[in-house]
Amino acid sequence: MTPDDGDGFVYCERGHRHWGLFGAAGLLLTDPERGVLLQHRAWWTHHGETWALPGGARRGHESAREAATREAEEEAAVPSAAVRPTAESVVDHGGWSYTTVLANTRHPVRERVVNEESAELRWVPPDEVGSFPLHADFAAAWPALHAQLGRELVLVVDAANVVGSRPDGWWRDRAGAAERLRDRLSGLARDGVRSADVGLGGADWSWWPRVQMVVEGQARDVPPADEVEVIAAVRDGDSQIVESVRKTRDARPDDHVVVVTADRELRARVTAEGARVLGPATLLNLVDG
Asked: Which CATH class, in words, describes the domain spanning 9-147?
């Protein structure tokens, strides 16, 4: 065992014994056709004979997202490329924490029992999960997790409004300013954002957003980047943003949609479509932070 591998038991501040020197993480994977992937823990494991998630101890250098996807591959043959992480929820026991990483399948997964830690793997309809003999901590967390299954955070960014909110010379090179914003948004999508920072509440939740950046005028030819879809307005930027919100709500009505703009009229229009609103200053503080 290396000092970085994280295997071992620890006691939290509540006096409970937990597996994982650096905490632990599990993957709550949702397939829209089959349900959620549960693991029947082998009898000899910690809390054996219960049902929970593929997961395990975090390594010292790992994020929870990295640990959860690694463990799912090691225990259930779920390739990381087939997983689109959307959010994470942390339960902190004081000195030890468990992170549930919620994810959607990018394409069908052929799961299989890989090692002796699993007695069985099964796709379970979400409404039936509560009928299983669950790991006690998973059972306690399940109602809040169930409410967010399959949902994503979609950030729709009014690029012209955001870049124009700070005097950084954008008027001399609007396309360049939009590209700089796109790259910062790509970093935000990769690193994630705390739920409370985008008006969703839930201090223990974070999201990896899908970002749609709406551009117009001289910035119309800005290309997309990792995790950022760039949408060139057909007419005007405001109408395109409203249309983007409407399409997202129609296709995925349960998703959290947040529009970033300071324009009063646009804020009223997207709110009427069911979106939340975030100011440019708040977004820029997030991407700079």
From this structure: alpha beta
